[in-house]
Amino acid sequence: MTQLLTEEVGKKIKSFWAPKHPGSICVANYKGGVGKTTLVCLLGYYLTEITGKKVLLFDIDPQCSLSLAVGFDPDQVSKTELTVYNLVKPSKWTNIKKTNFENYVANVPDRLSPKNLFIIPGAFDVENLDIEIVKSLTEGKRRVDELFLYCKQMLNAFDEYDYVIVDCPPNKMFLTQAMLRACSYYLPVTIPDAVSVYGMPRLLRWVKQIPDGERPKLLGYILNAINRTGGVPGGMTYSQQSAELELEKNVKRDLDKAEQKIIGSDPLIGAVPRLDAIARFLGERTTKITRHEFTHKTSGQPTIDDCLRGITKEVLRRIKEYSAKN
Question: Sign of the CA dihedral 221, 226, 232, 234?
Answer without folding.
Answer: positive
